[in-house]
């Protein structure tokens, strides 16, 4: 019995490692050669004006100075209309105070975010603009890089474009994470059975 459970344990461990490797491999591929996202062809001046708050947001994320959070919001966002969705389920932020919590948390505890602003896809949405921007996060502790997509809405106020909606999305194939539950549970079960069969062989 313990030999069978031992073999099954090794098998499910290898399956789990394979799935994690595929997840990492697809994430790496997406960072190096991301899938194309097309937007509208906008007049050059409009596109340049619309990218202004995104360039500034990227610059603030590069500096990661919590003391500059109010300046970042004032220059790039519309606090009274702001909704930000983070990568985690409970990360839902409204208004200036919500944006401050998100930005200060990101700059203190998250990894280094860098955004590919120049390749942002823009599309008209009535009088607003919808954008999709790619980037990557380098986690501080492990130097692990995660591809990310940021989507949102830009609105014009006083002849300047500002961000009114923002969503951060980890650009990973979560199917592998979902499928990995099966070998992870099987791995746990075979480990318990192996331990039980080993104890029974002693007694």
- Cα gyration radius (Å): 23 Å
Q: How would the global form be characterised?
A: elongated
In percent, how helical is the residue content? 40-55%
Residue windows where pLDDT falls under 50 for at least 5 positions: none
Largest sheet: 7 strands, mixed
The secondary structure category is: alpha+beta
Q: Number of DSSP strands? A: 7
Write down the overall mean pLDDT: 86
Written as H for each helix and E for each strand, in order along the chain, the element string is: HHHEEHEEEEEH
Query: How far is the first residue's CA from the last residue's CA?
Result: 14 Å
What proportion of the residues form beta strands (DSSP E)?
Answer: 15-25%
Number of helical segments with 4 or more residues:
5
Key features of this structure:
about 200 residues, alpha+beta, 7-stranded mixed sheet, 5 helices, 7 strands, about 50% helix
Give me a quick take on this structure.
This protein has 203 residues and is of the alpha+beta class.
Explain this structure to me?
The structure is a single chain. With 203 residues, the protein is of the alpha+beta class. It has helices at 2-32, 44-63, 69-76, 95-109, 174-202, and strands spanning 83-85, 92-94, 112-115, 121-125, 128-138, 145-157, 160-170. Strands 1, 2, 3, 4, 5, 6 and 7 form a seven-stranded mixed beta sheet that branches. 24% of the residues are buried.
């Amino acid at each position: 019995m313990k030999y069978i459970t031992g073999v099954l344990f090794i098998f499910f461990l290898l399956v789990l490692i394979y799935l994690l490797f595929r997840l990492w491999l697809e994430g790496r591929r997406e960072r190096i050669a991301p899938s194309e996202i097309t937007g509208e062809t906008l007049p050059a001046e409009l596109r340049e004006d619309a990218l202004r708050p995104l360039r500034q947001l990227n610059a603030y994320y590069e500096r990661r100075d919590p003391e500059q959070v109010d300046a970042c919001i004032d220059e790039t966002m519309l606090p009274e209309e702001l909704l930000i969705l983070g990568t985690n389920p409970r990360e839902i932020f409204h208004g200036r105070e919500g944006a401050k919590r998100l930005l200060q948390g990101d700059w203190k505890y998250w990894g280094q975010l860098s955004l590919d602003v120049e390749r942002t896809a823009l599309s008209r949405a009535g009088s607003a603009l919808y954008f999709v921007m790619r980037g990557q996060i380098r986690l501080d502790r492990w130097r692990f890089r995660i591809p990310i997509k940021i989507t949102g809405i830009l609105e014009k106020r006083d002849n300047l474009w500002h961000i009114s909606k923002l969503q951060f999305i980890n650009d990973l194939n979560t199917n592998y994470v979902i499928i990995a539950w099966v070998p992870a549970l099987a791995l746990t079960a075979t480990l318990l059975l192996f331990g039980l069969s080993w104890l029974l062989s002693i007694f």
